[in-house]
Here is the input.
Amino acid sequence: MKKLMLGNDAVARGVYEAGATVVSSYPGTPSTEITESLSKYDEIYSEWAPNEKVALEVAAGASIAGARAFSAMKHVGLNVAADPLFTMSYIGSNGGLVIAVADDPGMHSSQNEQDSRHYAIASKTVMLEPADSQEAKDYTIKAFDISEEFDTPVLVRLSTRISHSQSLVELQERREVELKEYTCNPSKNVMMPAMGRRRHVFVEERILKLKKYAEESGINEIELKDRSIGIISSGIAYQYAKEVFPDASFLKIGMPYPLPDKMILDFAGHVHKLIVIEELDPIIEEHCKALGLKVTGKNKLPLCGEYSADLLGHNLLGTEKGTYSLNEDILPVRPPVMCAGCPHRGFYHAVNRLKLIVTGDIGCYTLGALPPLNALDTCICMGAGFTAAHGFNKARGSEFSKKVIGVMGDSTFTHSGITGLVDIIYNKGISTVVVLDNSITGMTGHQNNPVNGFTIKGEKTKQVDIEKLAYAIGFERVRIVDPFDVDNTVKVLREETKADEPSLIIVQRPCALLKSVKYNGCTAVDQEKCRRCMMCMKIGCPAISDIDGRITIDETICVGCGLCTRVCKFGAMALKEDCKVEY
Ligand SMILES: Cc1ncc(C[n+]2csc(CCOP(=O)(O)OP(=O)(O)O)c2C)c(N)n1
Here is the structure.
């Protein structure tokens, strides 16, 4: 049976068909749907781990224990999971161990544009790269087989366009794979210097075997047509290249690490001009150059951003914009914005009243950096909201530190905020740090997490109590506030930032998009009372606009959260009881 599938769903189907039984992941666009999709297969145990390092370690343990195990993450997630990855390269696998990593060229939803292929090279493992949904499924299955045959973890690299576009996939039955036997084997599974030294030799020998596999297995393919141009490409870039150069010869790379040297040289020998087309870093290109080949690549194509058929046509053939695909210049820009009813908005409004410096973090609340809130001073990576505040404290002293708060969300807190709290206490910091607890992992599309107390399947589980945890770590000042009670939030922020001790403020109000949240109306503006002070415009709610000199509420967007009624000093905003908004 054939089915139209998202690349991410196809990876999940591959994990299922390959007979895997244990999955542990942490969400991150564009990889999230892989694990959401996997959670629907009853044959597979799946979970959201608090972060990617934990996720990969769980999968590693399951693999050593004999199961086929899998973990999915976005590119920056692999930074967090890099520690277990590099040592699992030495340990290898028992049951197949596969990691899907989704890159985000163009940074649709990421803080950087790093190229995950470097991780395959640096960890001396293996990487496969599908170019459509069918390959996403097939390569995932192949990845489990390679993992077991060569005793290695295998990375499957995706990118936003592969993860989030749909193409046909032929479905097959699930292979029932027996648990492999587990025997205690410290020389393989306990990595300390004496064992590690031997396993490093194994890893180097494994690469040579994998190079042979890259040449012979058919995962990299030569398609000889017109010999005047030979293109080496992989992943989504291959699809763009095929569209622009339908008659050219191709070496399609399905395994970007290790690369097939003989095949590359052989292909180069058949074609007149060699072009390497790859998004982000010139990894294949540099490899070709190291083999002594002359190639066109990044001298004509950008290092930054996402490619398209149009970009290739323009840069390599000189065609006009819009020749191969939509001319994106004609599309209206839609900047990201916090939703109407978002609890983070009330919090930032309070922060702005006190003109605090905010070391921020990654989540929906990062959008507080944009106008009109303009509330964030820094955003580095998950967890850095708290630790960067501590850095400000140590760099500029206690008095300055009283103007600084560190901020992160509930999922980010269990991802990597807890160690920051420990650092502040242990190293005599005085920072005020804030968890914006909206009871969900909002930014990546509503995944449950340890703070909201539900599993990936929506089952009730133990809930991490942030307040008790902070006390246990040693915080003596812990406050809980409702961000829509702006005056109280301002008061608590003022008191806690003034204190000479570290403090934690838990800002609690659930995400307005949760099914359990029911606001019961929408707001109307009394034009008689409105003084056009523009205070309501400062909260940046998408439902409020200034049209022809009148502050206007868009009833199709307003959820009736009432925040604007609390910030208006003239009583011009009031909830309309009769306005029922259906959700
Ligand atoms: C290392 C890493 N993993 C995953 C992500 C993807 N990501 C961005 S924000 C976020 C979680 C945000 O959830 P939360 O902290 O609860 O804040 P909310 O969006 O709900 O406000 C995730 C998983 C990332 N940016 N970096």
